[in-house]
Amino acid sequence: MEPDFWHSKWNAEQIGFHLSEVNPLLIKHWSMLDLAQDCQVFVPLCGKSLDLCYLAELGHKVVGCELNQTAVEQFFAENSFAYLMTPANESISELNRFDARDITLYQGDLFSLTSEELSGVDAFYDRAALIAWPEAMRLAYVEKLTELLPPKSVGLLVTLDYPQEALKGPPFAVSNDWVMANMADDFELELLSCEDVLNENPRFINKQVPWLTESVYQLKRRG
Ligand SMILES: C[S@@+](CC[C@H](N)C(=O)[O-])C[C@H]1O[C@@H](n2cnc3c(N)ncnc32)[C@H](O)[C@@H]1O
Fold first, then answer.
1. Ligand 1 atom closest to Cα of 18?
2. Domain residues for 101?
3. What does residue 209 show for φ and ψ, rounded to 5 degrees?
4. Which run of H or E residues covers position 143?
5. CATH at 92
6. Angle, vertex CA 100, rays to CA 99 and CA 101, nearest 5
7. Sheet of 40-44: strands edge to edge?
8. Is the CB of 9 under 6 A from ligand 1?
9. What are the tens digits of pLDDT across the range 21-44?
10. Among 67, 72, 107, which is best to mutate for testing ligand 1, by the most ligand atoms less than 8 A from CB?
11. Binding positions for S-adenosyl-L-methionine (predicted)?
């Protein structure tokens, strides 16, 4: 979606995607990646997710990217983290940078982030980022993610799939076939789980979406 869409959602506090707890799928599957405690984890389109806190509590250095400044400020305020803000500067970065102890958030458009800003990243976590893009923009996101991530970095990807014609996204439906067809050239992919989650999603039930699955993939950047 275009930036204005997301800014209006944050302004109107319509953030149904935000979970009030750490994503149970992250807790369940993260250890599968077998990462060193001090590794650096990139979280694209991070919102104000508590998953950032969970990853930092594991000892990881966490680097997120989020478009909306209110989201970033709420993240630090709601978790009582002191931070230092470095404004965007043409010669250094096109994004505002917010540094707390173990968490750095770049505030601005992911497409303006550079691999230099992510140097040191070994891992990544995508929940509600790939599925935030309509199909016409999704491939550009995958290409940007691939460009930003160093070879051999590993991560988790969480997707949703449902009959797209039954509901206007976001979240957008991303099938296993789409993931395999469009990401397998750049990532080794392993499907870790695929669960029926319709009953936990009243918005989808109310719109009479007939089925809804949530999948978790383990990824490794090729190269
Ligand atoms: C569906 S939400 C998911 C947030 C988070 N991953 C979570 O699990 O709560 C997508 C987020 O991506 C942000 N976003 C959208 N487009 C972006 C872009 N081009 N660059 C950075 N962030 C973006 C939105 O502001 C929104 O907070």
1. 9
2. 3-13+21-221
3. -70, 125
4. helix 135-148
5. 3.40.50.150
6. 125
7. 84-86, 96-99, 103-107, 61-66, 40-44, 123-127, 154-161, 213-221, 187-196
8. no
9. 999 999 999 999 999 999 999 999
10. 67
11. 10, 45, 66, 127
**Phi-psi label, residue 74: left if phi above 0, alpha if psi -120 to 50, beta otherwise:** alpha
pLDDT digits (tens, 9 = 90+) for 160-210: 999 999 999 999 999 999 999 999 999 999 999 999 999 999 999 999 999
- Give 126's strand partners: 157
Please provide the average confidence, as pLDDT, over all residues in the chain: 97
Q: Which residue type sits at 206? A: N
Whole-Å CA distances, 128 to 35, 77, 102, 185: 22, 22, 22, 22
Q: Are residues 213 and 194 in contact, defined by beta-carbon separation less than 8 angstroms?
A: yes
User: Can you tell me the distance from the alpha carbon of 79 to that of 92, in angstroms, rounded to the nearest whole number?
Assistant: 28
Looking at the structure of the chain, the number of domains it has is 1
